[in-house]
Amino acid sequence: MRRADARRREGDGVTTPRANDEYLLGHDEAEQRRLRGQDEVWAAETESFMDRLGLSEGKRVLEIGCGIGLGLPRLGRRVGVGGRVVGFERNHEYLAASRRLIRDQGLEQAEIFSGDIERDVLPEGPFDAIYSRWVFSYLPDVEAVLRRLRPLLATGGRIGLLDYNHDGIRVFPEAPRFDEVIAAVRRWFAIDGGNCWVAGVLPLNFVNSGYRVLGVHPFVQAGPPDSPVYRWVEDFLFVQAPHMIGAGVLSEAQWAAFVEEWERMRGAAGTILYSPMQVGVLAQAR
């Protein structure tokens, strides 16, 4: 139980109100390491979906919630030095990380703006594409944000959102304590106004907000305990468990039972984990 013991000591189970620039999952170094690992797990799927944005040399693209900047180099390669990549991010630590990445990688075509997508002034368009990954599942009013973004799109421009349909996440053989913890994750998102199934309703959100849906593109992974996707889910749960306990969506007893079950699963023959669905939804303004 080496991994569980190390992670369980993080946090004191106390929750405090978050500042306006903070996130449900936090933004400390442990979370930033987890984000880098998550990016590696889903790199091929991200690239595949970005290919559908229609970007090429000289185009202008806006990334909403660019976080620590992991999407900026991918977008920069697509638009070239003659294009423009704009990141929009509200968290100050993530802003600093994005700016360091831009500097270190020499992305002269990229710049970062600070702000909250729900209320602050947006970067000036028009943009040939707007892109976001794993952001809209945290927004309580998706359609309001989509309406704010629509005037920023150039004629014929595309908006692509990559996010969750949380159905599909399972581990086999059957693991009831794992299912309990996943249910807690979903409750945690919900009490903060988020939606773990946002990708399922994004097509309707787009239609209601004045867009035409161009396509829906699902991605899923599966693997045994030594696979990247298994470690991704494991990292998420062990980093975030103290916060879920503090929020009251998961009990200490439930977590302890899960840790015991998880260690058994690691050594069980034939153990395999299926990821939640990642779904890319592509649209144009009507």
Can you walk me through this structure?
The chain has a single domain (2-285), classed as Vaccinia Virus protein VP39 (Rossmann fold, 3-Layer(aba) Sandwich). It is 42% helix and 22% strand. The chain has ten helices and ten strands. It has a seven-stranded mixed beta sheet, with helices on both faces. Helix 2 packs antiparallel against helix 9 (228-247). It is globular. The termini are far apart. The model is unreliable at 1-19 (pLDDT under 50).
Structural topology:
Blueprint: H1 2-8, H2 29-41, H3 43-50, E1 60-64, H4 72-79, E2 84-89, H5 92-105, E3 110-114, E4 127-133, H6 142-149, E5 153-165, E6 170-172, H7 176-191, H8 198-208, E7 211-219, E8 222-223, H9 228-247, H10 252-267, E9 272-274, E10 277-285
Parallel strand pairs: 1-2, 1-4, 2-3, 4-5
Antiparallel strand pairs: 5-10, 6-9, 7-10, 8-9
Helix pairs in contact: 1-9, 2-9, 7-10
Rg, rounded, reads: 19 Å
Strands ordered across the widest β-sheet? 3-2-1-4-5-10-7
* Average pLDDT metric: 90
Distance between the termini: 54 Å
pLDDT < 50 runs, ≥5 residues: 1-19
Please describe the biggest sheet, giving its number of strands, its sense, and whether it closes into a barrel.
7 strands, mixed
Net shape: globular
The fold-level CATH name is Rossmann fold
DSSP strand (E) fraction?
Answer: 15-25%
Succession of helices and strands: HHHEHEHEEHEEHHEEHHEE
Total number of beta strands: 10
- State the fourth-level CATH superfamily: Vaccinia Virus protein VP39
**Which class best fits the helix and strand makeup?**
alpha/beta
Total DSSP helices: 10
| Overall number of structural domains | 1
**CATH architecture descriptor name:** 3-Layer(aba) Sandwich
